[in-house]
Amino acid sequence: MRRSVDNGVTWTASRTVLASTTGAILQGDATLLADSTGPVFLFSTSEPTAGQSTPRRPAVQVSDDDGLTWSAPKDLSSAIKASAGTGDWFATGPGHGIQLTRGQYAGRLVVPVYFAVGDQQSVRLIYSDDHGGTWKIGATATYDKSVLKLSEQTLVERTDGSIHVIARNGAVPDQTSVHGLARGKSTDGGLSFDGEFQADTVITAPPTHPALLRQRWDGGSYSRILLSAPATAKTDNNPVGMNVRSSFDEAATWDNYDGTPNHAGVRIDSDHAGYSDMTLAGNGAIGVLYEAGASRFRDEIRWNWFWESAIGLP
User: Fold this and answer.
1) CB-hemisphere CA count at 13 Å for 29?
2) Between 181 and which of 24, 116, 156, 200 could a Cys-Cys bridge form, CB atoms 3.0 to 4.6 Å apart?
3) Which of 183, 207, 181 is nearest to 195 (CA)?
4) Distance from CA of residue 68 to its chain's centroid?
């Protein structure tokens, strides 16, 4: 892990906060969530050995000093994996969870996970109503992989308190599709999904892990939600460019600042790029952390921060 205390201008050296151990050789799928009362939660998933990928075990660590120190990992398998079996492939996040701020579920912590068993794949939300003391299974959607192969999700709270969900959809042609996402919704704080997920045929993005971010709430002259992801096909498993899209109507449509449609967004990096996550810094800057490289999208991890004016102001 690396930390910044100056809004992402500089970063500390990388350090290990969860080492490999016997029976948990590979550690990954890191997912962060900060509670408004102070604690920061780090979710991860481990694999038993380098040659054995299941059963995968989810765990959570807690920091009470903004990531300086972390608790020992707490195994969450019994709390959040059911009814997935021991032969499932399970993953937390990756990316970040959210804390709800509006309506009857204000204060609830919500984190996305997903798992696969046989020919079926599921997305799930887990939640906590006691500031991370306990975690429970919430909304779960399961589909045959040939219909919707949903995996990594990203979440944002809408102004009405509902949760908008965008998930990677691996059911489309992996190397050629530029409509590789699906969308869902929860209106009960993540306890259930409203209806079925729908393959998204509007947003221009390949099957990948995207990131949603609430950049502006209502109350001013406009609200704004951002979505980061490449906007080209994954030809040779190597998409080009990292883009940031904007929605001014709570993720119903994706447009330029002047209201014209822009389903691909504004390019912030023209090299190859892959997974991404976003955050809003304390000074209002928008930060994007993403895979990128001049030759291959996994060559580097890059941090790109900019002011809202860089992607257009209404």
Assistant:
1) 24
2) 200
3) 183
4) 23
Let me know if residue 2 belongs to a domain.
no
Last residue of a domain, one of 149, 177, 200: 200
Q: For tokens 């409203």, name the residue.
A: 194
From the centroid of its chain, how far is CA 50? 25
Domain limit, last residue, from 156, 183, 200: 200
What SS3 state is found at 12?
coil
Q: Are residues 216 and 158 in the same domain?
A: no
Q: 34 and 170: one domain?
A: yes
pLDDT tens string 213-222:
999 999 999 9
Determine the structural domain holding residue 239 and report its residue range.
202-314
In tens, the pLDDT along 1-57 reads 999 999 999 999 999 999 998 888 899 999 999 999 999 999 999 988 888 888 899
- Composition of the chain by helix, strand, coil, percent to 5: 5, 45, 50
